[in-house]
Design a protein that fits this description.
The chain is of the alpha+beta class and 152 residues long. 22% of the residues lie in helices and 33% in strands.
Length: 152
Amino acid sequence: MYTYDDPRPMLTVDVVAITKQAEQLNVLLIQRNHEPYQGSWALPGGFVDMDESLETAAARELAEETGLEGVALEQLHTFGDPQRDPRGRVISVAYFAFIPAGTSLSLRGGSDASHARWFPMTELPELAFDHNKIIDEALSRFRSVFEQKNNQ
């Protein structure tokens, strides 16, 4: 097998799951169980295994860290600022999921997450990494799709 002498970036996935509760948008966050940012809130996500697709990794991480399974995921954007992660050069492919209001959701922290819970978009805690930027991108996409549906 051929290997490269040059360093290579690490690859992760993050999931922005949004739902509407009590007439406001909420985002699903996990409380990190490990460094970096141990104890901080973040989007569900993690490293992509060598033998899995990006979407499979996103679904796996969402299930492992929150208990949510069978959620439809849509690729949102790739985030690659060289300084976005203190562990080194990490590129993240973010996914977006809209959970319809009234869907029965049983959350549980697991894997790298000590807790999982919904936060109103207007009351987000300080987030790890560049997850505020990822949420802003997802919110922009959500509003764009919502406006298109209303204008049809």
